[in-house]
Specification:
Layout (H helix, E strand, L loop, with lengths): L7 E6 L6 H11 L4 E6 L2 H11 L3 E5 L10 H5 L9 E5 L4 H9 L4 E4 L7 H22 L14 H14 L5 E9 L3 H7 L1 H16 L7 E6 L2 E9 L4 H14 L2 E3 L2 E3 L3 E8 L6 H17 L4 E4 L2 H20 L5 E10 L4 E13 L3 E3 L1 H11 L2 H21 L6 E5 L2 H5 L3 H12 L6 E6 H5 L2 H14 L2 E7 L6 H4 L6 E4 L1 H4 L6 H16 L3 E5 L4 H10 L3 E3 L9 H10 L8
Parallel strand pairs: 1-2, 1-3, 3-4, 4-5, 11-12, 14-16, 16-17, 17-18, 18-19, 19-20, 20-21
Antiparallel strand pairs: 6-8, 6-11, 7-8, 9-10, 13-14, 13-21, 14-15
Helix pairs in contact: 7-8, 11-12, 13-15, 15-17
Length: about 575
């Protein structure tokens, strides 16, 4: 939001026949409240609208009929000559085309194929923050060299400092660039307001100042990101040392109006000359390193390496293969039985996605599931998984196994999709599966991301008759009070607490507490990852009777599941 208004105006310039409706919906998802979406089908229409409405941010697709890079600057300054951030939606990731767009005055460039991923949020967040900062500076009459919120040097000043450092660096010394992204900070702004967010950013800036030398430069990079320039380093290992100091400085709680806020950060490091000979490559590589940390969960640092480029190239190649995997019939579902140890009865099966990558064999889920999530392919693939699992469960029931239910994992993107309840209802009707035979699994962190939204969606799913399981329970941060709000049926104890159950007293205590909590709330409790008789014996004593793990069966293809269920013999094993 801007400092001057409670309503954010976003101008979307996109042909009606293209992805306009989907983009408009995406904007609404990014900013669920306090946003006014303005729409135009051409650049000419957008210029007129921008003059009248003074938008805070403009998104323009290259596919509009009168698109011209030379006119992007005119659009950015349509209202009284005051710059408005323009984000171009590009059809290809050509370095030349991206560079031309930025030179023409675009604030950022988005690749259309990645609109379902996290990039639109990041681009719009930074663009709106830039707009908000600009207006604050203009109203205060300050020069653009200083960030209005933190008082730190601006991004432009930082880039100039980096350029100067590269040109004047002495022989035998290195220049380091650190990009610091505060993890999950958007939740602070949306949950507590921008005033609280700005005050926390000022406190963060103060702590960061104590982590660098007087000769170094600390700047506000934009949004919830900061940048550090380490000049004339005699030892490259000084940069990771500074990153460690930063993480430690931010680990202490931040107090504001009697509340404690806990923040973590993702830090990316790039060094000159090893990681880049110019400003642009250094910044790009530090940014890539920072986002690698974010993808791995944050609260850490990572130094860029050429190997990381290879890793990113591999992920891009994997993403391209995944786009055609469905058509090639490479996705399959395996199923892992879930048992009640009191009578040995199989109560359900968890559907698990597998990918037989052409020419490369079966890929571990940990390799390709994150790529599906990042690219947005998880939405069509997730819908396929749900339909396939329901169809298979209905077939087993028709063959005589009427008591079986099937569990399907929902990804964060699937759960946030507004049409999810309707899709689930449609698939249940299409396949003929009784809703009570479908269990949908979600993690704590997904539900806690937006509690009100989560309760509303879960209520709709429960109205259909579906069961809800809270997966990986114990690794999140939901309190008993919050948990009572969620209409869940089953708590699944995370496998990390099961692994050392026989030797670790703390793990035994945690499992016992979860079982007692489930019983108090009249919920079923299931332990996943059970591999030994010792683990099962402890869980049985604690009152946990639902078990899933290699002790009984590994995930199996459908035909082997039938053999296992009807003969008691496991026909096949899969990872």
């Amino acid at each position: 939001m801007t400092a001057s208004s409670s309503v954010t105006k976003v101008l979307l310039v996109e042909p009606v026949s293209r992805d306009r409706e989907g983009l408009a919906r995406r904007v609404g998802e990014i900013f669920p409240s306090g946003v006014r979406l303005l729409e135009a089908a051409s650049l000419a229409e957008a210029l007129a609208l921008a003059n009248d409405e003074s938008p805070d941010c403009i998104l323009i697709g290259e596919t509009v009929s009168d698109f011209d890079l030379s006119r992007v600057s005119s659009l950015a300054r349509a209202n009284g000559g005051s710059a408005v951030p323009v984000v171009v939606i590009a059809e290809s990731d050509s370095d030349d085309q991206v560079a031309k767009a930025l030179e023409a005055g675009a604030y950022d460039v988005l690749l259309r194929s990645r609109l379902a991923g996290p990039e639109p949020y990041r681009a719009m967040r930074n663009a709106l923050e830039a707009s908000r900062m600009r207006r604050a500076l203009e109203s205060a009459g300050h020069a653009s060299e200083e960030d209005a919120v933190t008082g730190l040097p601006s991004r432009r000043v930082f880039l100039e400092k980096v350029a100067d450092a590269l040109s004047s660096g002495g022989e035998g010394t290195s220049v380091g660039v650190l990009l610091i992204g505060i993890d999950g900070f958007q939740g602070i702004n949306s949950g507590f307001g921008y005033d609280v967010g700005d005050e926390l950013l000022r406190i963060v800036a103060g702590r960061l100042r104590h982590c660098v030398r007087n000769a170094d430069t600390l700047a506000r990079w934009g949004g919830d990101e900061f940048a550090v320039l380490l000049e004339s380093m005699s030892r490259p290992e000084d940069a990771p040392f500074v990153a460690q100091r930063i993480l430690y400085a931010l680990s202490r709680p931040f107090m504001r109006e009697g509340k404690d806020f806990y923040l973590t950060a993702s830090v990316g490091i790039a060094l000159h000359p090893a990681d880049g000979a110019d400003v642009a490559s250094l910044i790009q590589h530090a940014d890539a390193a920072m986002y690698r940390v974010k993808r791995l969960g944050g609260n850490n640092y990572y130094a860029y390496s050429a190997q990381m480029n290879v890793h990113l190239s591999d992920r891009l190649a994997m993403a391209n293969r995944l786009r055609g995997a469905s058509k090639r019939g490479e996705f399959v579902l395996h199923y892992q039985p879930q048992l009640d140890v009191r009578d040995g009865k199989v109560v359900g099966l968890e559907a698990l996605l597998r990918w037989n990558d052409s020419g490369r064999g079966c890929r571990p889920p940990a390799e390709f599931i994150p790529v599906l999530e990042e690219t947005g392919l998880i939405l069509p693939v997730g819908e396929w998984v749900l339909r396939k699992a329901c169809t298979q469960a209905r077939a087993w029931q028709f063959a005589g196994l009427s008591h079986l239910r099937v569990s399907v994992n929902l990804s964060p993107k699937q759960f946030r999709e507004r049409e999810l309840p309707k899709k689930v209802e449609s698939i249940l009707k299409e396949t003929g599966l009784d809703p009570g035979s479908l269990e949908l699994e979600l993690t704590e962190s997904v539900l806690m991301d937006d509690e009100k939204y989560s309760v509303a969606v879960l209520d709709q799913l429960k109205e259909l008759g579906a069961l809800i399981a809270l997966d990986d329970f114990g690794t999140g941060y939901s309190s008993l009070g919050v948990l009572k709000q969620f209409p869940v049926d089953t708590l699944k104890i995370d496998r990390t607490f099961i692994r050392d159950l026989g030797e670790d007293e703390e793990d035994r205590a945690i499992c016992s507490a979860i079982v007692n909590l489930g019983q108090a709330l009249k919920l079923q409790v299931m332990a996943e990852g059970v591999e030994t008789e010792t683990q099962m014996g402890i869980l049985r004593e604690q009152g946990c009777h639902l078990i899933q793990g290699f002790l009984f069966a590994r995930p199996m293809p459908p035909d082997d599941v039938w053999t296992w269920l009807t003969t008691g013999r496991e026909a096949a094993h899969s990872p």
